[in-house]
Write a structure and sequence with these properties.
The structure is a single chain. This protein is α/β, with parallel strands linked by helices and 397 residues long. It folds into two domains: 145 residues, Nucleotidyltransferase, domain 5 (2-Layer Sandwich); 189 residues, 2-Layer Sandwich (Nucleotidyltransferase, domain 5), CATH 3.30.420. Helices cover 37% and strands 19% of the residues. The protein has 14 helices and 14 strands. It has an eight-stranded mixed β-sheet with strand order 5-4-3-2-1-6-8-7, with helices on both faces. The longest helix is centred in the last third of the chain and has 25 residues. The chain binds adenosine monophosphate. Adenosine monophosphate binds next to helix 10 and helix 12.
Length: 397
């Protein structure tokens, strides 16, 4: 079966067409600037060059039409419309309602709407993507795969904040966690690589990308994760603060005469390694270069980022009692041997020892610890689209 995977944002739409049997990507692409001047669809059919089509996209319905046109056109198309057997949608927030992927029905759409206030930027955009696909492909089964679902196994002591309990009861304020599809995929894949049953392993998954999160996975189940009610909590990220004292918000508001939303914007978009590096960059390729060239901001940012990761690894080792494997994934985790080395050099307290030669790997599955390391260090590239396609196939076949 050919599965169309859709990741719909407010002004963008990423897609991949995946063959469920071979698990190969048949075509992938991106619609950008939906509803904004200068919109375009860029896509790459497998084995062919990238194709760019600059064309008006007033809304997501038109974007989906263009995706279907790209997949089915006579010249570069890769399938007929009838061959698309199912669509898998990435949904950011499933609240407490969704603990696993589900076939999309009217009730599911209503439930996703009901938790939209927990992800006001993302869930409405995800719903627009669902509706646009339903319009363009009536009768084709669709599946919702939630970023939060894998983390729903966290125990109460890990997901509750030290807030008055009534806020949890009234509004569902708690830790939910994100990147769940990635944490789930990587922890399962790591167990396969190690030739062990996930039930027998205690793992820490470090998803280090532009957005970054870390999770403790005990016996195949998430027991804690660093992102919270929203993806702002936890590690220092590309432009997000991660953990801060909430009083900082009021403090900056008063000092700079700003509104709550102004400060929230600063915490999300002007902070993290970007802000710490004096705005040198949010990209670790630039930060590595800056670090090696003596740029004080780059050093400050990278050192703070690394420290926060190590601190969480310590906390999650304590939460699980011990750790068998630590996995690195996403843009930085998969590609930056530099950042991995800075982190792993501080993991002697769990008995981890890095194989410097093996750590030169980029974007490939590899064990990067020495043979006498007490903890297995590994690079496991994530593949959220494949995980979404697998769930979609499992529910629709
Ligand atoms: P992601 O959000 O997982 O797509 O990760 C994107 C981030 O990965 C970029 O902003 C970079 O910081 C980082 N990245 C990608 N490639 C490399 C690389 N070769 N070396 C270091 N960092 C990289």
């Amino acid at each position: 079966m050919k599965i169309l995977v859709i990741n719909c944002g407010s002004s963008s739409l990423k897609f991949q067409l995946i063959d469920s049997e071979s698990e190969q990507v048949i075509c992938k692409g991106l619609c950008e600037r939906i509803g904004i001047d200068g919109s375009q669809i860029v896509y790459t059919p497998a084995g062919k060059d990238k194709i760019t089509n600059v064309t008006p996209m007033p809304d997501h319905n038109r974007a989906i039409e263009l995706v279907i046109e790209a997949l089915t056109n006579k010249e570069n198309g890769v399938v007929s419309l009838e061959e698309i057997g199912a669509v898998g949608h990435r949904i950011v927030h499933g609240g407490e309602k969704f603990t696993k992927s589900v076939i999309i029905t009217d009730e599911v759409i209503k439930a996703i709407e009901d938790v939209s206030d927990l992800a006001p930027l993302h869930n409405p955009a995800n719903l627009i993507g669902i509706r646009a696909c339903q319009k363009a492909m009536p009768g084709v089964p669709m599946v919702a795969v939630f970023d939060t679902a894998f983390h729903q196994t966290m125990p109460e002591n890990a997901y509750l904040y030290g807030l008055h309990y009534s806020y949890y009861e009234k509004y569902g304020i708690r830790r939910y966690g994100f990147h769940g599809t990635s944490h789930s995929y990587v922890s399962k894949r790591a167990a396969e690589i190690l030739g062990k049953d996930g039930k027998d392993l205690k793992m820490i998954v470090c998803h280090l990308g532009n957005g970054a999160s870390i999770s403790a996975v005990d016996g195949g189940k998430c027991v804690d994760t660093s992102m919270g009610l929203t993806p702002l909590e936890g590690l220092i990220m590309g432009t997000r603060t991660g953990d801060i004292d909430p009083s900082v918000v009021e403090f900056i508001m008063k000092k700079e005469n700003l509104s709550v939303s102004d400060v929230t914007n600063i915490l999300n978009k002007k902070s993290g390694v970007f802000g710490l590096s004096d705005e040198l960059s949010s990209d670790f390729r630039d930060l590595e270069q800056g670090y090696n060239n003596g740029h004080a901001g780059a050093k400050r940012a990278v050192d703070a980022f690394v420290y926060r990761v190590v601190k969480y690894i310590g906390a999650y080792t304590a939460a699980m009692g011990s750790v068998d494997a630590i996995c690195f994934t996403a843009g930085v985790g998969e590609n930056s041997g530099f950042v991995r080395k800075l982190i792993c050099d501080k993991l002697g307290f769990v008995g981890a020892s890095l194989d410097v030669e093996a750590n030169k790997v980029r974007g490939e599955e590899k064990i990067i610890s020495t043979s006498d390391s007490k903890v297995t260090l590994m690079v496991v590239p994530t593949n959220e689209e494949l995980a979404i396609a697998r769930d979609t196939y499992a529910l629709c076949k």
